[in-house]
Amino acid sequence: MRYLALAALLAAPLPALAQQNCGGGFPAFVEGLKAEAVERGTSPDTVESFFNGTRHDPAVIAADNKQGVFAVPFVEFARRLISENRMSRGMANRSDYAATLSEAEARFGVPPGILLAFWGFETDFGAVQGDFNTRNALVTLAHDCRRPELFRPQVFAALELYAQGDFDTATTGAWAGEIGQVQMLPGDILRNGVDGDGDGHVDLKGSAADALMSGAKALADRGWRAGEPWLQEVQVPEGIDWSKTGLDHPLPEQEWQAMGISARGGALSHPDLSAHLIAPQGRGGPTFLAYPNFSVLFEWNESFVYVATAAYFATRLSGAPIFDAGSPAPGLNQTQMTQLQQKLQAKGYDVGGVDGILGEMTRRAVRAEQVRLGKPADAWPTPDLLSAM
What residues does the Transglycosylase SLT domain cover (predicted)? Predict the structure, then answer.
C-alpha cells in the first residue's frame, strides 16, 4: 500500500565497485553485492550467510507497478481507510498502549494520534505486515534500474542488522522492503530503531512498543515539531482567493483568519504559526489548514491523498469530528488524469511523472493552469478543465 517508504539512505560513501549500480544478470549482480559488502568490512562468512538463497522476486516489481489506489479521491479514500472498526481499534490501542504513547511523546514530541494513525494504516495495528521476503525484495529492487540509489543502500543496511542479530533472512514485510508494524526500511531502523520494551533488541515485527517508539523517533528525526498541530479542518468563506491555497503558499494562521477562515470544531489557536490552506477535492469538498508538521509526514509516504488521510485520521483519534464532505465537483478517472498530466507536461509544467495520480506537483500545475484560464484555482481538476485545455 505504501507509495514510497520512509527512506533513510545510508550516509557513508559507496566504494567504486558500487558504481556498477543495477541491472545485468541477477546472479552476477548478487555477486557484486557480496564483493562490495566484504569491501565495506563485513566478514565473508556473514556475507555468504546473508545472501545464501537470494532470489529475484518478480512479484515485487509487479507490486511496484500497481499503485492505483492512490488515484482514489480523498473523501472516498478516507472513508475506505477509516472504518468504524479501525477507529474503535485505534481508540482501544490508545488506551492499551497509553504508557508507551506517553513516553514516545515525552521523548520525541510526536503525539499519540499520529503514531496510531500510521500504525493503523500501515499494518492494521500489526495484523497485516506483508508476506514478501524482505531480503529478496530489497535485492530485487536494487537490481531494478529505476531507483537503485534508494534500494541498494538498504540491502547493506539489512546486512548490518543481520550481523547485529536483529534481522533474519526469512523476515517478511512489504513489497518495498519495509519491516514491522509501522513499516520502516532497514536503514531507518539502524538510524532510528528504539528498544521500547527493554529486551535488548529492536523488533519492529513482534513488539508494538519497539514499533511505536521507533516511529516516533523517525518522525522527530525528520523534523517533527513538538507541541504543534499538523492539520485542522476549517470553514472557508465565499470569495476566497483559491490561488493562495496549496502547499506552496504558507501564511500565518492569523492571516487566514483575517480572510474569514474559521475552525470547524474547536478553535484556531496558533496565530503566528505558518499554515497552508488545502482542499484535497477542491472548493466543494473538505478544507483544512495544514501546519509545518503536516509536511514532515511526506517523509513517511509521498502520496498526497495518503498523507492527508493519515493526518486527518490522527485528528479523529485526537477528538476531532468527522469532516464535512461537502459536494465536490466530479473529478477525473485515472485515464483522464493521465491525459491531463500529458497536456500539462506538453505545456511545460513539471507534474512529477505521468502516472494518472493527482500528486502535489500535478496539483500545482493544475492551479497554475486554472489561474491562466480564469477559473477558481483550487487545484482540483475536472472534466471541464480537461476540455478547456
Answer: 26-314
What is the dihedral sign for C-alpha 53, 54, 57, 63? positive
Over residues 153-187, the pLDDT tens digits come to: 999 999 999 999 999 999 999 999 999 999 999 99
If you average pLDDT over residues 44-58, what whole number do you get?
97
Same structural domain, 295 and 246 = yes
> Is residue 249 in a domain?
yes
pTM: 0.89
CA–CA dist 132, 140 (Å, integer): 11
Identify whether 242 is part of a domain: yes
274's enclosing H/E stretch is: strand 274-278
Interstrand relation of 274-278 and 251-252 (parallel, antiparallel or unpaired): antiparallel
- Would you give the DSSP letter of residue 242? G
Domain match, 292 and 346 both: no
How many Cα atoms sit within 13 Å of 43 on the Cβ side? 6
Instruction: Kindly tell me the burial class for residue 53, based on how many C-beta atoms sit within 10 Å of its own C-beta (0-12, 13-18, 19 or more).
Output: exposed
Q: Which helix (H) or strand (E) holds 281?
A: none
Whether the predicted pLDDT of 13 surpasses 50: no
Alpha carbon 385 to its chain centroid, in Å, reads: 29
